[in-house]
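Aim 2, interim progress. The first record below pairs a target sequence with its structure tokens.
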Amino acid sequence: MKPVFCTIVPPHILDRLAESDDPTVYEPARRTLEHDSLHRTRRRVATLGSAAAPAGTPSDTPRRTIYDAGHQETTPGTEVHAEGDGPAKDGTVNRANSALGATFDFYLKAYGRHSVDDAGLPLNATVHYGTNYDNAFWDGTQMVFGDGDGRLFNDFTVSVDVIGHELTHGVTQYTANLEYYGQSGALNESLSDVFGSLIKQYALGQTADQADWLIGQGLLGPHIHGTALRSMKAPGTAYDDPQLGKDPQPATMDDYVRTSRDNGGVHTNSGIPNHAFYLVASALGGHAWERAGKVWYATLTGGQLASDADFAEFARLTAATARSLYGEGDAISAVLKAWSQVGVPTS
């Protein structure tokens, strides 16, 4: 198992901001990029040949601890909230704690999973990380949240789907362990978007047609022209802003982006499997975590998904899973049609 350093804000957005002539724009972006690059290198070196962590004791209640970095770039920081404590005076601490709980609750009640490793892994998070740090990440063991710079990005605890997204990188780490490059890396990102969105929908009690299918809604600053970081319903439409640029995500293989940047475009091409899931969930209706989500979850955790899987392999496995779970009916029809619509073969 090789945990990777996974951030919610794609490098291509930060690259664009770093090229600005405005120091209030480029300074936090450049600091964030430098930080993230260093962490990615450290993560690769530290995890070569790493083994899985020892299993904990599964419980139906989470074990959450929130730490405060005090605007330093050290983790975990000072403990400020433990499991069972009452609400803190710090709203950021409370939002982080609540979202960790919502993610734990979702995986337990929807799929019978006990924390990200299915063995009761404690859920730890560090808030107030760095100064004007414009990102949030899963470092292989815990969550870390920046406060944003207040102009381009808001506090990174404001979106429960962002926290669900990052913790799902942990679920992937402990299951299929998808390589973070090319199509397998885009699948890694897409699965985090899928379950991040489902965690939000579950917490709000939304059906597929009620959900906004946005990732990071509320993260963009007040003067940014956009609604979120990504849209699963309409990839490529989440933002179009003079400073951020235009959302580059494709919805189908016709617009697949071939690039060496961002580990082969993992945050860009994830729009294709994202859209496929949205199409399946919309076709089946109801609560998306129940049937569409169960197909994706069983495919991720079933032991058949190779760590270097491409879109076509994942598509074939979701079709096989849908047929195994639900037989010949609307579920398998929805899966086959969705992958066909985004241009990914299933046979």
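The second target in this work package is listed in the same format:
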Amino acid sequence: MSKHPTYAIHFLLLLIGLLVCLCINISLGSVSISFIDTLKVILGSDTNQSSNSYIIWNYRIPKALTAILVGSGLSLSGLLMQTLFRNPLAGPYVLGISSGASLGAAILIMGSSLFSGFITFSAFNDIALAIASSVGSFLVLLAVLTVAVRVKDTMALLIIGLMFGSITAAIVSVLSYFTKAEKLQQYVYWSFGSLGNLSWTQLAILCFCTFFGIILSIFSIKSLNAYLLGENYAKSLGIQLKKSRYTIIIATGLLAGCITAFAGPIAFIGLAVPHVTRQLFHTTDHKILIPAVLSCGAILMLICDTIAQLPGSMSVLPINAITSIFGAPVVIWLLVRKKKMMF
């Protein structure tokens, strides 16, 4: 748990980078709006109430805030899982929570092909889709917590979580096989991930769940630091293993489940950002890592979203593809440059 005298400078640079990325993300898009006009709208000095104001407040700002919440939440949940299982390949979806959300969405979208119209889905009913995904992730989370009562070994819990993910993925495959091409296309489109479909009400719900997950993570800092040296060491410090494990799993479930429900399954961010943050800060202390991971995740997600919306073009690339195509080489370069991975 090393200390470093330049942490304040690190966080100041991250804050500046976040603000710059936020402003760039809001000012760029399919409709050309100058940076000055964007600032006028945000600061309320655009007295004409032009179309620029409508575009910025009803589309670009909610989209940018969604990117911040998604990037921060997935990065933090990835950090929690990597620490709990002491596995650098662990991510926010190892417990099958994302697969549960995908199953909920698949049943709603493709279920009509199997249940003869008993389940119907409108392509524009985003609220119903978010509810179905949330229910799916919650049921898988409940199953994982039930198993966690009986399992003492953390690594066994990891394997069980992966098995839950395999089961739900298999059910989705069966639904995909029997569904119509139109319904399958709708599900595939949802699986690409999207940051631009949230209303202010949905954004408020996502913000609440993310905030609650962050609070649970902050209360788990002592446990997380102890887990780095093994469960026996944590127990010797007086850490209640079952209680701390439940808290970490619930925090991860809230973050990953809610984000997947509202934005779809978004890859790479939760796995890679904790590693990038450790390399930049040279520490394993979660007092430093948690705020750093939140900031780095938000910045990376804003950058990926800016690239995905192809400024000046009407086309928008799948955010899932951008996070991996542009993010993975950065992580590879960083690890090769440092020659050693901190964990």
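The longest helix spans residues 51-85. This observation will shape the mutagenesis plan for the next reporting period.
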